[in-house]
């Protein structure tokens, strides 16, 4: 043994308490699935999951700032960025879970099949429906994914970052395949997400190995120190940074790693799509900020131009392909790709303004996205979701409040003044211009103008379209849970557009990384 002794690392469990609460809540949810009767599972799982997230949020607010630091042998960093993004993930997850819990008067959440393992339309699936089987396993799956997201933004080590990546991803692969309607499309989405996610994880691992070979360590601080001292080893450093970036860019749906996004967004249960679109982007961009700003900032001349090109391609491709879509969920999917490019514009700035503007944009996008997909889930035709643009004709006359809410959210996506979308885009473009990336901001403004076209097409269809063209379209009556999620999302979208200063100041004050 060479006389060496194992020294246990010091772990600040108070700093990790919010994550511990979420993971424990997920494990309790798994236990409930195993022992509670079918009739009681929903009544137990919904309050258990919401209470878990609220308790974790309280622990984060009350204890987080007093326990900032690097812990667990340097693998976890709890700093202002970590706390802000973890809090954002928790708040968005609460709204997402409320939308997932919508039953429309039924016995279980409306969006999910009673038997996810059965062949669509099979006798087994019919029997599961007949006996009243439930799919309340979506709650522990969601909690586990949320715990992975919280760990993802706090990871200060390449190995832990990969573990967190898999923890947040694996439940999403399952959730994407549990749609109650369009089962084959949902299962196809799940398979595509899983296969492409596996490829991206392989790229990430290959890059992590190269960075380990370069620095002799997987800690971000050690990699940063090696970059400042090692000379002549760019053959390991540059490919390592780029391959790790591939794994992270896949999770945010940036071009050219975006192929999964429209198919998964369309096929997954709509509430899951909203949760995934909002929360995964927050987690993935949080991890990307830490890797690029803490671990490999010294190699900025190598990766900055590449990320800038990816940002420009994401904005252009997302905008151009959005305008030829005829399905509302696919429009929002390509919009998501364009928004990934907008957020990357802030990341490229590589200063405090870049970090704060990126975090602010993540908040604005999250609070726009969850209510938008919640509204999509309400519009029905022949017992299923009416996602074709033509099916939304005259929606403003059938349900003016729902149409008005969706119109406002689309205006926010487009970046119209007095919405959070305008403020977020102004913040990231300003950060980019201040660091000499004015051409990227110009591309962003032009892409925003292009995406606005398809948003206005949908708005015109809702308010001026002939209701006779969508005679079978109705709007389901939501429960208080979906109504609350939509109301909160719209209110925050308006507030961040009219009075953004408090949140911008908060983002500015928490934009420093511990190294």
Q: Percentage of helical residues? A: over 70%
**What is the mean predicted local confidence, pLDDT?**
91
Q: How many individual helices?
A: 20
Spatial strand sequence of the major β-sheet: 4-3-5
Task: Please describe the biggest sheet, giving its number of strands, its sense, and whether it closes into a barrel.
Answer: 3 strands, antiparallel
Could you spell the SSE succession in H and E letters? HHEEHHHHHHHHHHHHEEHHHHEHH
Instruction: Catalogue the unreliable spans.
Output: none
Topology, number of strands = 5
Which structural category do the helix and sheet elements fall into? Answer: mainly alpha
From the alpha carbons, calculate the radius of gyration and give it in angstroms.
22 Å
> What amount of the residues lies in strands?
under 5%
Shape: globular
Through-space gap between termini: 32 Å
Number of domains: 1
């Amino acid at each position: 043994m060479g006389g060496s002794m194992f020294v246990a690392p010091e772990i600040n469990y108070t700093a990790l308490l919010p994550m511990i609460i979420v993971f424990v809540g997920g494990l309790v949810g798994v236990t409930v699935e195993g022992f509670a009767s079918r009739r009681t599972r929903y009544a137990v799982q919904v309050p258990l999951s919401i209470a878990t997230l609220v308790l974790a949020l309280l622990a984060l607010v009350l204890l987080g700032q007093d326990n900032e630091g690097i812990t667990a042998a340097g693998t976890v960093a709890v700093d202002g960025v970590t706390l802000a993004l973890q809090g954002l993930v928790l708040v968005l997850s609460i709204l997402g879970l409320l939308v997932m819990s919508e039953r429309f008067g039924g016995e279980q959440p409306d969006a999910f099949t009673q038997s996810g393992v059965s062949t669509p339309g099979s006798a087994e699936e019919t029997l599961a429906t007949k006996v009243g089987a439930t799919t309340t396993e979506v709650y522990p799956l969601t909690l586990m994914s949320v715990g992975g997201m919280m760990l993802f933004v706090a990871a200060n080590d390449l190995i832990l970052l990969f573990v967190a990546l898999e923890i947040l991803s694996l439940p999403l692969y399952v959730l994407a395949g549990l749609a109650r309607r369009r089962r084959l499309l949902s299962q196809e989405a799940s398979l595509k997400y899983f296969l492409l996610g596996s490829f991206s994880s392989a790229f990430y691992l290959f890059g992590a190995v190269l960075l380990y070979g370069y620095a002799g360590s997987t800690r971000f601080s050690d990699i940063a120190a090696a970059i400042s001292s090692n000379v002549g080893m760019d053959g390991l450093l540059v490919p390592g940074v780029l391959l790790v970036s591939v794994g992270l860019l896949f999770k945010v749906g940036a071009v050219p790693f975006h192929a999964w996004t429209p198919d998964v967004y369309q096929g997954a249960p709509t509430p899951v799509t909203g949760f995934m679109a909002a929360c995964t982007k927050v987690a993935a961009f949080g991890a990307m900020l830490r890797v690029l700003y803490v671990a490999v900032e010294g190699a900025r001349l190598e990766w900055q131009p590449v990320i800038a090109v990816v940002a420009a391609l994401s904005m252009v491709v997302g905008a151009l392909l959005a305008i030829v879509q005829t399905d509302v969920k696919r429009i929002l999917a390509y919009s998501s790709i364009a928004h990934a490019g907008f957020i990357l514009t802030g990341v490229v700035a590589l200063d405090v303004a870049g970090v704060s503007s990126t975090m602010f944009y993540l908040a604005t996008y999250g609070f726009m996205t969850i209510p938008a997909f919640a509204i999509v889930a309400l519009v029905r035709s022949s017992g299923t979701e009416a996602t074709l643009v033509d099916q939304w004709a005259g929606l403003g006359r059938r349900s003016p409040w729902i149409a008005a809410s969706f119109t406002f959210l689309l205006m926010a996506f487009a970046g119209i003044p007095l919405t959070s979308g305008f403020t977020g885009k102004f913040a990231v473009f300003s950060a980019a211009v201040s660091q000499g990336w004015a051409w990227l901001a110009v591309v962003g403004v032009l892409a925003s103008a292009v995406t606005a076209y398809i948003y206005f097409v949908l708005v015109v269809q809702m308010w001026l379209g002939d209701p006779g063209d969508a005679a079978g379209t109705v709007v389901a009556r939501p429960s208080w849970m979906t109504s609350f999620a939509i109301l909160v999302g719209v209110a925050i979208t308006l507030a961040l557009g009219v009075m953004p200063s408090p949140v911008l100041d908060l983002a500015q004050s928490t934009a420093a990384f511990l190294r």
